[in-house]
Specification:
Helix content: 25-40%
Organism: Robiginitalea aurantiaca
CATH architecture of the domain at 32-145 and 266-341: 3-Layer(aba) Sandwich
Protein name: Phenylacetate--CoA ligase family protein
Shape: globular
């Protein structure tokens, strides 16, 4: 859609434009092949790599100049019966290499392809090709996760994502638009604040929505505003989140207001990894969609890099790709939590990197949003959006003491207060911003 035309159209026309665009996306995504893939995923074993598909993928990857050269360099046999052992001869593929050799990574196919954009791990965008079957497989594996918890295709969703569906200069309700093909009420994150929360609350309540989905930072902010205004809780059947790390204090406020614990899955548009929460509370690696490895990091005990191979996308093969994300594993190799990005760490003056800073806000429901910002080795700033019950003389020492316990006393710590923490165009809240390289 052309932004100027959309932003200057009447609201009913905006709803029509959104639904019209999403109709074609829905028709392309949810066709007969999608349901066949979903059925196969539901009948298969998610813990097992599909060796047949992986082998076919590697043979196809050898057609790209980049992988042909790399297979030769590391003596990888693309037709080996033990294809996983062969792939593990390869070094880890970095985002820098993908940027440098983008054209050489692509494989020309007869199958239709489209281009997908991701905001990337460093803020720099990546636009890459994907096959139509890849798109359907990715949505099938996500819907397998949703169906495990009882969500069905007919359920309407309240969506709190990163898309700007309401013009920024609109200063009166409604602060939402309708996507009828996808059965979504799309709420504007840009307009959500203490003055407009009653409009959001009444819309959620009067629409009888039982499922909301979005970034955890937005849903936690929504929940904190509801509680701050003293509105009754809004029981939901499902609260699902994605795209950001889910922090302990966010879980607490979301569960308190919506009376249900949020469910999460980890995935990337690049399709190199997918990890889903199961109803029993454990994380499942969806190896039947992408081949995932965990490589020990230097960031601390039991912290592992998430390395993935997107064997569902033949158009743009990424093999042993460093997602720049970190998983915390127990001694048996089970996932305890997805810890966030590799750069979600503070670097101390002595060079030590400290992570798991989310634990500082484990019970901090007196905070709406929080973010760490490090500009130099000697100083870190904690950005706080306080909740209504926040008392500076009481809660600031609590935050400082908890931070000192993790960062020590060799680094200067400052707390600064904001009405709202800036988010980039993606709408995602980055928990740690570090200028240290």
């Amino acid at each position: 859609m052309i932004p100027f035309i959309y932003n200057n159209s009447p609201i009913p026309i905006q709803n029509l434009l959104i639904s019209g665009r999403e109709y074609f996306r829905h028709k392309k995504r949810y066709n007969s092949e999608f349901y066949e893939i979903l059925d196969a995923f539901n009948r298969g074993n998610p813990n097992e790599v599909n060796i047949t598909e992986l082998t076919s993928f590697v043979k196809n990857a050898a057609k790209s100049p980049f992988w042909k050269r790399r297979f030769q360099e590391y003596e990888v046999n693309p037709v080996s019966k033990d294809i996983i052992t062969e792939l593990q001869k390869l070094p880890i593929l970095t985002r820098y290499e993908v940027d440098q050799h983008f054209e050489l990574l692509k494989v020309p196919l007869k199958e239709p392809t489209s281009y997908l954009a991701t905001s990337g791990t460093t803020g720099k965008g990546l636009v890459f090709p994907q096959t139509a079957s890849m798109e359907r497989k990715q949505w099938a594996v996500w819907w397998r996760f949703r169906q495990r918890f009882g969500i069905s295709f007919g359920d309407w969703m309240g969506l709190f994502g990163g898309r700007s569906v309401v013009p920024s200069n609109q200063n009166k309700p409604p602060y939402w638009r309708y996507n009828h093909p996808m059965r979504q009420v799309m709420f504007s994150p840009l307009h959500l604040n203490a003055k407009t929360i009653s409009e959001y609350y009444n819309k959620l309540r009067n629409s009888n929505l039982k499922w909301i989905h979005g970034y955890p930072s937005q849903l936690a902010f929504l929940a904190s505003l509801i509680r701050e205004k003293g509105f009754p809780s809004l029981p939901m059947d499902y609260v699902s989140i994605g795209s950001e790390s889910l922090l302990p204090h966010q879980i607490k406020i979301i569960e308190e207001v919506f009376e249900i614990k949020p469910i999460e899955h980890y995935g990337l548009k690049e399709g190199v990894a997918n990890i889903s929460l199961t109803p029993c509370g454990k994380y499942q690696i969806d190896q039947d969609f992408a081949f995932v490895e965990f490589i020990k990091s230097d960031l601390g005990a039991n912290l592992f890099k998430i390395i993935g191979t997107n064997y569902s996308n033949h158009a743009f093969p990424l093999i042993r790709y460093d997602t720049n994300d970190i998983a915390l594993l127990d001694n048996h190799g089970e996932i305890i939590s997805i810890e966030g990005r590799n750069d979600d760490y503070i670097t101390l003056p002595n060079g030590v990197k400290i992570g798991r800073l989310t634990m500082i806000f484990l019970t901090a429901t007196f905070v709406k949003e929080a973010q760490f910002y490090q500009k130099s080795l000697n100083e870190v700033e904690i950005r706080i959006v306080p909740a209504s019950e926040y008392k500076r003389e009481v809660h600031e020492p609590i935050i400082l003491n908890a931070t000192r316990q993790r960062l020590g006393y060799e680094i200067d710590i400052k707390i600064r207060y904001y009405d709202k923490i800036y988010k980039p165009n993606s709408g995602k809240l980055k928990f740690v911003i570090s200028e240290i390289r």
